[in-house]
Write a structure and sequence with these properties.
Length: about 210
Amino acid sequence: MRIVISAGPTRERIDAVRFLSNRSSGKMGYALAEAARDLGAEVVLISGPVSLAAPEGVRVVNVESAAEMAAAVRAEEAQADVIIMAAAVADYRPARVVDGKWKKSAGPVTIELERTEDILAGLGERKRPGMILVGFAAETENLLAYADEKLRRKNLDWIAANDVSCAGIGFGSDRNQVVLLGRDGRKVELGPAPKREIAESLLRIVLMK
């Protein structure tokens, strides 16, 4: 079985030294990659910029921007049996990137943003029969409603919803708590627990092992 997993944040350049990003550490995606490897899968980990060691026995594709992650996912999807999009991909990027360093000025600065490609929605549109597609929904309110809407709108098989406003879980933490929703109506609560334990439970459910 070939499992493709995305992890970490993306960085969207403003100029030569600045970028827009988010608080994702990549720990959940890396835990999923290690757990999938230990189940005997061939694992491809598409990783944004993180401070984590590459898991042994996993092929890692390093990317920086949302556009680079989209291209890397497209390059792997035809051979994937399962795709798990655990990365926190930027929804927006600067419409204009300054070649050098943007010099400080006396007045306020406005940065115009444009939408990035919705990688997960594209995967849902192109999903092959038999392929399993899993997304993540990091929310701060209306967790289940937003996650269920995303599950159906993007043609996912499963979505793992987590409330990133809760202290001690989510971004940067070694622990997590998620609600796994299936397109068949199943709802499974996982955690709070170490991310590796969450990853193992999630994979057993998704793969029906």
